[in-house]
Design goal:
This protein is mostly helical and 366 residues long. It contains 19 helices and two strands. Helix 4 (41-69) runs parallel beside helix 8 (127-136) and helix 13 (221-242) packs across helix 14. The radius of gyration is 26 Å and the shape is globular. The structure holds protoporphyrin IX containing FE (HEM). Protoporphyrin IX containing FE binds at residues 47-48, 51, 103, 111, 122-124, 126, 129, 302, 305-306, 309-310, 315-319, 321, 324-325, 328. Protoporphyrin IX containing FE is lined by residues 47-48, 51, 103, 111, 122-124, 126, 129, 302, 305-306, 309-310, 315-319, 321, 324-325, 328.
Length: 366
């Protein structure tokens, strides 16, 4: 704990003289008889600055999480810190989402009063937002080509280089993947969980097939074809879990990002999350999904705000506006593979029994 080093004055500590001098509406600077200051530009600046401040805090927490994960081994208590900081990021997201509502108290006509003065500046150029995206695991190469152009094309040379350099360090996604790959428990001595799970899945799929076959006579040709096709897809989806080649094919087609080993271990955590040792890892994966989902929700919310303010006009940064933002909301997801793990869940009653020796490792009690 630090000792007090003498009196501190509130204004100095928070540097309020500088901080509160950073809101300079352009419509005030260029005001004349025909074009008076636009009252709502102050709100526009303050909401954006508040966002940037919270982005700074999110990055402060995200960077510390990346540092913890960069170690060869993550100690249990450090996993607790990761969960606590992810939870904070999630709470910040929820809170800043509400600020769009305050901005919506500005009408589209009020916005028009100063919008032209902003061109070509745009949220496109929020390097902190981009840094969060990249550090979470969204690479420039993952974006659709037109979006990639928007992503880099509107930035200064220095900002562009800085962002590209972040892509060379492991993202949260990559670090989670490496951590999951190191997770023990699924293969131990005689016990190979995946053989047991595969047997359980085969039995369930055989039952499904029997049900479909027994109902075929009652169905039209079209319904029959549809049900058989569904069954085939389900079988193939499960098969890809156990077949490295099929998994790699999905990865190369962009249908999957997480390695097969990491996927299997993440699934194990999901299936046995009530085991004490897996509770924290489950909470961590859950928070990563929450954060991903909150980003998507924010993107949709922001796309609607843009539509409300601009209709079908292009953005100040030159994109198609609402259309571009909606596409980014649909595509820019990081932890989709964790969401899709639900495909592989099977009823609790059919879960393979974990042998006592492995169960003991998953419990805190001795
Ligand atoms: C009147 C309110 C707002 C309007 C009309 C608006 C409109 C737009 C539009 C049209 C774009 C697409 C790029 C372009 O062509 O300019 C964009 C991008 C963006 N805006 Fe806003 N925006 C508003 C408020 C905000 C706020 C409060 C934030 C908070 C930081 C924000 C952050 C962003 C970000 C990060 C992007 C880049 C998104 C991406 O490329 O995925 N915007 N905005």
């Amino acid at each position: 704990m630090h000792k007090n080093r003498g009196p501190v004055y509130y204004h100095d500590y928070l540097m309020l003289n500088q901080f509160l001098d950073c809101q300079k509406p352009l419509s005030q600077k260029f005001a004349d008889k025909e074009n008076p200051e636009a009252h709502d530009e102050m709100l526009f600046i303050i909401v954006h600055q508040a966002y940037e401040l919270w982005f700074k805090q999110m990055l402060h927490d995200l960077n510390s999480i990346l540092k913890i994960f960069s170690q060869e081994k993550v100690a249990d208590h450090e996993l607790g810190t990761v969960v606590q900081r992810l939870e904070r990021i999630r709470k910040i997201q929820v809170m800043i989402g509400g600020q769009l509502e305050i901005l919506e108290s500005m009408t589209p006509m009020d916005f028009l009063e100063f919008r032209n003065l902003l061109i070509p500046a745009s949220g496109f150029q929020s390097t902190q937002f981009r840094e969060i995206e990249i550090k979470m695991g969204l690479k420039t190469g993952d974006r659709q080509s037109i979006d990639r152009e928007f992503f880099l094309g509107r930035l200064s040379e220095a900002d562009r280089e800085k962002l590209i350099s972040f892509e060379n360090s492991p993202s949260l996604f990559k670090q989670l993947e490496a951590w999951l790959e190191r997770t023990p428990f699924t293969i131990s001595g005689e016990f190979n969980f995946w053989n047991e799970y595969q047997n359980a899945v085969s039995a369930i799929l055989a039952e499904d097939e029997a049900t479909v076959n027994s109902n075929l006579a009652k169905l039209s040709e079209q319904e029959k074809a549809m049900q058989l096709a569904n069954l085939k897809t389900t079988k193939e989806t499960f098969a890809s879990l156990f077949d490295e080649e099929a998994h790699q094919k999905l990865v190369s087609e962009g249908g999957r990002k997480l390695s097969r080993k990491a996927t299997l271990n993440a699934l194990f955590i999901l299936l046995y999350r009530n085991e004490p040792m897996l509770a924290l890892p489950y909470q961590m994966m859950s928070l990563m999904m929450d954060i991903d989902e909150n980003f998507t929700t924010w993107r949709y919310r922001h796309a609607l705000l843009a539509q409300r303010m601009l209709g079908t006009k292009i953005g100040t940064g030159g994109s198609s506006g609402h259309t571009y933002l909606k596409r980014a909301a649909d595509n820019n997801r990081v932890f989709v593979d964790l969401f899709n793990l639900s495909t592989y869940l099977i009823p609790r009653s059919r879960l393979p029994q974990i042998p006592p020796a492995v169960k003991r490792q998953l419990n805190f009690s001795v």
